[in-house]
């Protein structure tokens, strides 16, 4: 046995354990130390995965898609390595493998499901070559105000070239992602929704990728699902939406989600039209890897998306839904999910401007907050470091809001005096702390 590897695995486990004791998230530190002690550790442990290695990339939906894929594979009685916590840069990925290894330094796993930050793919793929990469979508992120989506696309292209035998599983309804997969030279499999689900009038968001990546011409859309996702075609060069290999039909997105694919009826007990894409992505990649997925509906029934992605809490008779909203596309989909709920509700919006959130919060002006007017909203409370800006943004569309910079106080106040149905929408750096507050309150 390689002494370096043993030392790396034991050190990482010790750090992980020590951090849990002190209530810190030590995931990335554990990975960093392990990689220092044994630079080959990621390559070797990933090589010990007996069946397939999956990676999930894309601006929105990575964590939900990856965790769902992991649950679906576990339901087939297989052992899976997964970075559940969403630590999706190099050290976080190393950590997922190292902390799953046994004290003998070896991995006992049939599959790996790893979400990877798009920009980190070129740092991670030199260590191992995945069998499949899921690409969920490419939206402008909170930091990507100035053409950074092109930089992200170039990095992903390089990553695809690093693993020429990797099959790309791609959202056909996103012209940016589909273009990337089609041009990569890698084998690709597509999923999408070919039927029109929404009336044109309710999808009025600002959109990315309206121009053909191949020739620069403005794309023509037959319809939109949301943001730039829809049925598109280039009038100039012939680039168009590929016919999906896995096509979801009979879409229902109300209090719950349902659709048909491959003659199967899929149902899930939670909200958000965008989650149909996440479910479909996980389904497509697992089916492409020749899994039966006989238990897929049971998995969806039990699945509580973790880490503040539509995560549900029950506190003193109030039903609370926590959701991450970190960019315009994500936020608009959050508002749609709130609107799918026809009962009266309270909403708390928490906006921070720490480094990871992007210190420029002008993206708030690209979110269609005026739609809250039609959503049977009892109250909106704004919180976080930039609560004043958020309040101004709402005021601009004539929506009054209460101000409470301390989110714990805001939550407690709404539990005491609210409708019993509370949505908490937070951006990135607020997610972990808000989730801890909700967990603590839930335990009483
Ligand atoms: Zn074109």
UniProtKB/TrEMBL annotation:
Pfam families: Mur_ligase_M, MurT_C
Source domain of life: Bacteria
The protein's Enzyme Commission number: 6.3.5.13
InterPro entries the UniProt entry points to: Lipid_II_synth_MurT (IPR043703), Mur-like_cat_sf (IPR036565), Mur_ligase_cen (IPR013221), MurT_C (IPR013564)
Pathway note: Cell wall biogenesis; peptidoglycan biosynthesis
GO biological process entries: cell wall organization; peptidoglycan biosynthetic process; regulation of cell shape
Binding residue positions for Zn(2+): 212, 215, 234, 237
HAMAP family per record: Lipid_II_synth_MurT (MF_02214)
Family recorded in the similarity comment: Belongs to the MurCDEF family. MurT subfamily.
Protein name: Lipid II isoglutaminyl synthase (glutamine-hydrolyzing) subunit MurT
Top-level taxonomy: Bacteria, Bacillati, Bacillota, Clostridia, Lachnospirales
């Amino acid at each position: 046995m390689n002494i370096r590897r043993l030392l790396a695995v034991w050190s990482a486990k010790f750090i992980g354990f020590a951090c849990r004791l002190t209530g810190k998230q030590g995931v990335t530190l554990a990975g960093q130390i392990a990689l220092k002690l044994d630079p080959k550790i990621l390559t070797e442990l990933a090589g010990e995965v007996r069946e397939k290695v999956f990676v999930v990339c894309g601006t929105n939906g990575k964590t939900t898609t990856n965790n769902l894929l992991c649950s679906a594979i576990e339901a087939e009685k297989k052992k899976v390595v997964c970075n559940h916590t969403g630590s999706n840069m190099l050290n976080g990925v190393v950590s997922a493998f190292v902390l799953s290894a046994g004290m003998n330094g070896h991995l006992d796993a049939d599959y790996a499901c790893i979400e990877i930050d798009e920009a980190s793919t070129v740092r991670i793929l030199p260590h191992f070559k995945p069998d499949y990469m899921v690409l969920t979508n490419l939206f402008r992120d909170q930091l990507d105000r100035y053409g950074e989506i092109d930089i992200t696309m170039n990095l992903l292209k390089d990553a695809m070239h690093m693993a020429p035998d990797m099959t790309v599983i791609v959202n056909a309804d996103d012209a940016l992602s589909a273009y990337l997969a089609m041009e990569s030279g890698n084998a690709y499999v597509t999923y999408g929704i070919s039927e029109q689900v929404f009336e044109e009038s309710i999808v009025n968001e600002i959109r990315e990728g309206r121009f053909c990546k191949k020739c620069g011409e403005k794309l023509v859309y037959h319809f939109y699902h949301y943001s730039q996702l829809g049925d598109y075609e280039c009038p100039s060069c012939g680039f168009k939406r590929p016919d999906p290999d896995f096509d979801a039909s009979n879409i229902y997105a109300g209090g719950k989600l349902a659709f048909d694919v491959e003659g199967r009826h899929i149902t899930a007990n939670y909200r958000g039209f965008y989650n149909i894409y996440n479910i479909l992505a996980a389904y497509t990649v697992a089916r492409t890897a020749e899994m039966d997925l006989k238990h897929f509906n049971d998995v969806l029934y039990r699945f509580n998306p973790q880490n503040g992605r539509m995560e549900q809490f029950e506190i003193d008779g109030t039903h609370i839904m926590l959701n991450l909203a970190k960019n315009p596309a994500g936020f608009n989909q959050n508002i749609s999910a709130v609107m799918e709920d026809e009962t009266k509700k309270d909403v708390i919006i928490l906006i921070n401007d720490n480094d990871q959130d992007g210190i420029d919060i002008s993206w708030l002006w690209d979110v269609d907050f005026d739609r809250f007017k039609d959503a049977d909203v009892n109250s909106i409370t704004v919180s976080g470091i930039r609560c004043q800006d958020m309040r101004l943004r709402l005021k601009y569309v004539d929506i009054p809001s209460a101000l409470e910079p301390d989110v714990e106080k805001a939550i407690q106040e709404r539990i005491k005096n609210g409708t019993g149905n509370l949505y908490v929408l937070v951006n990135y750096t607020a997610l972990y702390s808000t989730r801890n507050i909700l967990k603590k309150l839930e335990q009483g």
